[in-house]
Amino acid sequence: MFQRISTISKFVVLESVRSRFFLLILFAVLVSFIAGFFAQSVSVTEGDLTLVSLVATLLRFATILALTLLIVTTISREFQSQSLAIVLALNITRTEFYLGKLLGFSIDAIIIVVILSLCLLFIATPSQVLLWSTSLFFESLIIISFALFCSFSFEQQPISIFVILAFYLLARSISAMQLIAETPTFRDDSLYQIVMPQVISIISMLLPDLSRFTQTNWLVYETGMVSNFTELFIQTTIYVSLLVFAGLVDFYRKNY
Fold it and tell me: ∠110-140-99 over CA atoms, to 5°?
């Protein structure tokens, strides 16, 4: 079983290399640093902090976007070429195939994180870069799991990409939305003011709190601590497990 999973993951990584996916990551790094140095040059004060903040933010979003596009296009191409049906006709279970894909894309995420870490060492403290990069990997694992679930469920690239990015942006901003809903500027007894905080609170309980992951403040103000990672690890483990389980259930109920 583990040999077949590792074989599938190896082909996933090889396909990423052959498609020049990591050149796209290097291009994103270049664009991020150019934007950061430009912002630093026009900043009146705290130019170095502006550089680190902007570069870290752009690299984090570029990582999530790149992984999303890679996973959705890869799975969609396998549906269209019928290679998925051919592979499933061999002596391999759907669980092995699914976990092999998950492992392969996770290895891609590790390579991305290593590339970004080496680049960030030029502008940030090594210890904080290590914490930031580890958190980015945890965050990427959640997005990879959700992207696989969406790719196998919807089978349509535009819908999958939209749902994944909407999920990420909502999970990233749900804490701020909850804070705004609970502390309105003008208090009244309208139905909106009563219901909306409860709705947002329910949504926040269902989503991972990605605002706690990969915080730019760690690099800018060096506030990252190892103690923060217990909660991040628990969140990652729970949501990855649930998403993988949901993805496998949906994968098994379909006929190819």
Answer: 75
Secondary-structure percent of the chain, ordered helix, strand, coil, rounded to 5: 85, 0, 15
Q: Residue 227 CB: number of other CB atoms within 10 A? A: 7
pLDDT score for 38: 92
What is the model's pLDDT at position 199? 80
Nearest to 255 by CA among 47, 97, 89: 89
Closest CA to 73 of 8, 16, 30, 136: 16
Residue 91, pLDDT score: 78
Give residue 13's identity as a one-letter amino acid code: V
Q: Are the beta carbons of 189 and 114 closer than 8 angstroms?
A: no
Q: If DSSP codes are grouped into helix, strand and coil, which group holds residue 190?
A: coil
Alpha carbon distance, N-terminus to C-terminus of the chain: 22
Backbone angles phi, psi at 90, to 5 degrees: -85, 180
Mean pLDDT by 10 residues, the chain (256 residues): 87 91 94 93 81 94 95 88 74 88 96 95 93 96 95 87 94 84 64 74 86 91 86 94 94 78
**182 and 197 in contact (C-beta within 8 Å)?**
yes
Q: Any idea which residue has 């984090």 for tokens?
A: 60
The three-point CA angle 226-121-169 to 5° equals: 65
- Single pTM value for the model: 0.92
Contacts of 69-72 with CB under 8 Å at 24 or more apart are 69/161, 70/16, 70/21, 70/105, 70/108, 71/105, 71/144, 71/147, 71/148, 71/151, 72/147, 72/150, 72/151, 72/157, 72/160, 72/161, 72/164
As a dihedral over the C-alpha atoms of residue 104, residue 108, residue 110, residue 116, rounded to 10 degrees, the angle is 180
